[in-house]
Give the backbone structure.
Amino acid sequence: MSLSKVTFTNSEGQTLSGRLELPVDQHPHNFVLFAHCFTCNKNLGAVRNISRGLTSLGFGVLRFDFTGLGESEGDFADTNFSGNVEDLIAAADFLKKEYKSPTLIVGHSLGGAASIFAAAAIDSIKAVATVGAPSNPKHVKHLLKSGLEEIEANGKAIVNLSGRDFTIKKQFIDDLETKSLPQVAKNLDKAILVMHSPQDTTVGIKNAEEIYHAAKHPKSFVTLDGADHLLMRKEDSIYVGKVIAGWSSRYVDIPKKSKINSRHHVVASLGNAEGYTTEMKVGNHYIVADEPESVGGHDFGPSPYEFVSAGLSSCTAMTIKMYVARKGWDLQNIEVHTSYSKTHAVDCENCEDPAAKIDTFEREIKLEGDLDEKQIKRILQIADKCPVHKTLHSETQVITTLIS
């Protein structure tokens, strides 16, 4: 997971603070907008875990603080539900301008309701996933019941929510009264996934039923049995992220990776738009090679010489393991650390000449177990007999032909 701080402006010109999470091993195939719960922020544990579940499967995720919350500008007391929806639209515009338009929107609690409203206004969104969402924004009023009378009488009140005081103004309540989520869901021509826990005591499971019945197909429901409203258990939020990623793959475009067929054991394929990011088929496995960012790569995979070093390290470890197993010696674990560079030969006569440098692999071996000095000495001798080591020391040839 690659994380960077981003900022963008909302419709009122206020700066909103967000975090953009990207996969570590590829360019994101789709971007996701995440809407957090009422009075929460982008750094809630569940928000982070769901985002990472998505990035682990190739999505890029933008999570941000709504106006007046977390690190975003503005006064929360002057915000309302409509403002949250507008913030999501502004976030989508930011992604469209700086990266790529979002195709999936995920909302938690009241953020789930806001996601449905925002999805109706964002053309690029193809799928919506809600987690513990109320079937109507007015549901929030029950959280404010301790201050509703004061809000009606004085136009505002200080309400304690999850241990923090927030000023709620009458315009917030009035705005909720104008929003009909079932009507918006009914007319939403986009796939929707409703996720909810039967044990949710903050937003009852009945809300999920109402959203599901109001929405048109394609629609899906997944129960989060045993989870609480805020998904405080890490395993619950990680599960949510992975389920959303898998479900949405039916509705967003995910480029299929071409299968490489060849009589050779190793094949590398590099297009003209990937920089140096190279798809590789190694035996029956598909992996990626790349160059470091310092030389123009994306660092999505090991460099070619890192692969060579990896071959030497793994071969050394396997060769030692085979030998020790035959001897019945007590070797609990082997670590082989290898790095590559070009250095001068120890006995070079013309060291100032760049051409005098030779390819050098530095290999360090760590052995754990009950071994005496004689056994250790023999193991180090065996290390030099690993097939890759011997290949690197032998005269080799590369025969190149063109495939027509």
